[in-house]
Fold each of these.
Amino acid sequence: MSNYYVTTSIPYVNGEPHLGHAMEFIMADVLARRARQQGEMVIFSIGTDEHGGKIAEKAAELKLTPKALADQMSARFSQLAQSLNISNDRFIRTTDAGHEQRAQLIWKALAKNIYKDKYVGWYCTGDEAFFSEAEVKANNGVCPSHNRPYEKVEEENCFFKLSAYNDQIKKAITSGDLLILPETRRNEILSTLKDGLTDISVSRPKQKIGWGIPVPGDPDQVMYVWFEALMNYITVLGYPEHADFKKFWPANVQVVGKDIIRFHAGIWPAMLMGLGLALPKMLYVHGFINVDNKKMSKSLGNYISPDDVIAKYGTDAFRYYFLRHIPSYNDGDFTWETFEAAYNNELANELGNAVQRTVVMAQKYQDGVIGDTPPPEHDIAQYEEALAVCHFDRALDEVWEQVRGLNQYIDEEKPWEIAKQGDTDHLREVLAYQVGSLLQIADLLEPFLPDTAAKIKAVFHEGLITPLTGTLFPKQESTATPEPAQ
RNA sequence: GGCGGCGUAGCUCAGUGGUUAGAGCACAGGACUCAUAAGCCUGGGGUCAGUGGUUCAAAUCCACUCGCCGCUACCA
């Protein structure tokens, strides 16, 4: 039995949870549940990133303290995790006292890599990031994504010697010590490493941005929010002294979105190297979710909240769609039409109905008694290979091969005819095979659709049918506009 | 501008040199009836972006062209 540590990135609490956050939670949850199923000791951590000028600013607008706003928003993410049935063991907030204290320890441990310098540059609070002179000029001094002027910043900042680690990071990625998936993301980061990383500002003057963790020994500075947020992956384990940290670091997989790959494949590894710690074994980078093939946004009017979908179709259907129908290695698209098609065809008709017809036949022909079921016989190598590289979509394709296979088996064997012929031994054999097959499917489904897997297992528990109340996935009426009557 | 990726059936995609190019969805037809009017079977449908080349053989390798996307740098 070994230890397994998986993390998501921690969402910044300046906005509501959206489909992308939900998908990231779910993907990491599959990895965590699979590892537990394999008997590993697992820590699965999620959380929220809560400091920085943007939060302070927004809180002021709402006449709240930054902490009050962060409390509210953090709770929203926590609720989302609950409604998605996420099995996280930890939920770290960067405003937790433990994180704040440990972040300061990390800072001190990195002190030899940090120096103070005067910084002149352009800053956008919307991005919490600096921009080059050229870029500012190109945009006529206004940040296009936030429609606000860049602030000219001239101040003393602490700098982290990121440049010193460029070659070491490149080597770690090239050698596969830090495996980045998918490969196109790996290539992307390698190409930026070719150009060389520059040192980064990792603090802000306290008088300008008060909402942050104080820099130890420098009362005028607070830590730059990104720098401090990355530390959550080890503070949550109790860096440096806690047994969990010693047992579970380095992480097996860190799940992040493609927009923050540079932080996780550049700055974060450098920080770890500066601390003398191992790098995570794998960085899995997922894509973005569009809605109706367009970027989702409230202004475009195509905003869909995870709650809308869960409310109508349930948690497992939500998980299913985002794991199978959003490509694991690419951007994906959400439309109600494709969601409904996946729900009705695959979950209700193929899987749900396979369970239902098996249950009904067992009741009708054998009074609900199944008896011993044959052990699993399907090869799951492809499923395992897919999961090992976070190809959630393909892993589910493999499961559905078995679901289809089962339906074909039933149609070939025609248990209803066997029943008419009165061949009770053969009938018992066929139905037991169906049940055995469904139980294996339930096993494979457990990391993806935990609730559904549990229901299937409960129905056939101990070789006796305990029918569900209702069906696994009741057929849903389409939300599409019906054709007008002729 | 540099680097990288993509362009295959109406749609989403698999297929990286070797028989008539595949899957799912959608569409059409058929046989059945245990089941959530579900499931199963069969079928139509492709100049594999284009042009040229390498090869006994190219969706697959090379060059160029067109179109789309990502990362990154820059011109005043």
Amino acid sequence: MYNTKEIEEKWQNYWKEHETFKAENNSDKEKYYLLVEFPYPSGAGLHVGHVRSYTALDSIARLKRMQGYNVLFPMGWDAFGAPAEQYAIKNHIHPKKAVEENIKVFKSQLLSMGYSFDWTREFSTTDPEYYKWTQWQFLKFYEQGLAYKAEKEINWCPQCKTGLSNEDAQGGVCERCGTKTEKKLKSQWLLRMTKYADRLLEGLDETEFLEKIKVAQINWIGKSKGASVFFGLEGLDDKLEVYTTRPDTLFGVTFMVISPEHKLLEKYKDRIKNISEVEAYQKEAKEKTEIERTDASKEKTGVKIDGLKAINPVNGETVEIWISDYVLANYGTGAIMAVPAHDERDFAFAKKFGIKIIPVIDNGEEELTEAYTGDGKMINSGFLNGITNKEEVIEKMINYLETNSIGHKTTNYKLQDWIFSRQRFWGEPIPMVYCEKCGWVPVPYEELPILLPDVTAYEPTETGESPLANITEWVNTTCPHCGGKATRETDTMPNWAGSSWYWLRYMDPHNDKEFANYDILKYWGMVDLYNGGMEHATRHLLYARFWHEFLYDQGLVPTPEPFKKRVAHGMILGENGEKMSKSRGNVINPDDMVKAYGADALRVFEMFIGDYSKDASWSENGLKGCKRFLDKIYRLKDKVVDKEGYTSELENIINKTIKKVTEDILSMDFNTAVSSLMILSNEYDKINELTKSDYRILLTLLNPIAPHITEELVSICKLGNPICETPWPTYDETKMIDETVTIAVSVNGKLRSSMSVPTNTGKDELIRLAKELENVQKHLKDKEIIKEIVVPNKIVNIVVK
RNA sequence: GCAGGUGUGGCGAAAUUGGCAGACGCACUAGACUUAGGAUCUAGCGGAGCAAUCCAUGGGGGUUCAAGUCCCUUCACCUGCACCA
């Protein structure tokens, strides 16, 4: 009937030649900034999941443009990092080359879908012109003391042979390869993200993120309020600091627990009589994976330290110190005061090792069978006895701690500083130089970018060093400070670095003086709508917000928060309802679908497939149905006669459909937008003649979702200028009023009949008409009418007894 | 365990926010046209019943003239986080 490929290429060329989708940096128009997460140009190419989210935002972009907005809808490539590097290693080509090839494929696939990206703003994070500014921003972090090098126990992936951030090692497994991570002590660059913990929490109020995304971020930041308490060490002029959220239970402390990594153990090695037992436990803990260690259901283990005892500062009692892996080294102070009566974990530990349990909150029971965590009257607690209000007790205790200098109020976060070093070749070199004399020295701004060398070996090394360490001619340099011999930092940045500011570069992508001009940043402001996967709710989104808040503090960007609204698309699952994967053999290649049914049909189908935010299973039959819908629209052209103005009997539904489609696309209810267009086309199908206006409005409304075929039909039928160059239609409320409405009539709430009456018929009249209906009379017979309810234009309900 | 979410035909889903449950599409059934049909058109399509009618939105209870929608309770599944002191 028609050749989709020909039509699609024709219009894709038209848009390119006419620069239809170019966003203007100097414009009087109101701006609208739509952002989709830029993809990794992996060897696998475009996924039908990409098609879903890109089509969604593309249709909004197209509609907004027609509504007169200056729309920024850019696309680029997030090409540093492990996937690109592994692809290169596997295929024995340089990552740079691999990235180039993959981008080419990816881009041609995106072009074939007809997306309205402004391609003049395209860049890759691996372009030296781009990563120059990533390095530049790192130097800013360093200048402000927010980038620092520290010896730190990090998550190490033995498979990838690189360190990972906490965010990349969630659940104790490497996010890339699924290998269980190990703990490894390494000197690392870190970004002081903890300094922004509160800002990252407060900033959420300025956004319209989905609730579940906000919750995920709040949980990850993990703010908790409590107190630091200093326990004395018996016979020593030293203290053991613990963090607790329940200082009110201090009188219930019967032992202390420190993590196996706690520095106290090294410090007082000589005093500890059972040091070999302690060391054996430390070794055991180290060899366990994070998963094994943090399995809450497993039985508690631990060793009592013989030779070190703590003194409870509120009652002077001596308590034993234990080590156990249920206390984590990297949270709080790595040490806890244990209150077995009121903490489940401490309770389990005390039961196992026969430690005494002293209740300090009265729960009314004789015997404690489990930790009591509720409210109650304070007992066994000295000056706190008798108080029942928990908040009051906590406040009293904190006051006591502070006046006696044995503790103070503190806030704690689960969020930790961002581990920013990767022992990898394919990443932005960290622009730092190490000099024997001067220590770590930043590379001067004018020397940026520090380019990655062109070499042949980029496999990770066995030693845990970056592959760059082997390239001596690159590593050896002079100190920018003293001019003496120095070496470059050989670790590279994590691949989250490039994606932590890319939306800013899109606004001013060719600027070689600054990462982006401030006035231009000010014009575009915040990203209005940012779409991406749920998997980035705590990582990319947290890093990006942190980075942006920092730039704001430096006066480099105009707003504290980067993204106004964040939405997440549901996954496209395989036809069998499982996640698409090569091993399951249920992967659908968008290229094949475009070839068989055309880009428009694929776009329509993915919008029609279901609720945008929910997962949906692929269905080739569903796609065929959407192709049939487009074919039907194509056939409608034969009914078009040379007349203008809407056919009067269609006027009502046309106006309703304009309203529905406009609202649905903007609120991302794409499935119902498509369905209302199907309904409209079904109406067109029922009549013999269509005016040019009738046909054009249908094509216009469908255009954001199916841009090629609709433009082609406007052109074939000579319906005027291309849709993309004309304004989006408005609707006329007065034309949407129906002349007659169908009223449902029920008796005792059960539907008995219905009637067609003029719109806005009065209540009394409706009741009168309703009672005349045969089936209604039948149900009213010999009954007493108690109540008559009328909802105008909707329903009549007669209640009888 | 905590947090967020979802339960509606054979399937994907709608439901103007308390007012005719199942729009639209898929699959299926019957028929028409056809050398042919993975094209098109017509009709049907939650269950039971010849019918009037009855039963149906995970289960149970409640509010109401009226509940998929509101309240209580319970079950199932998904997705995060999880020994965070």
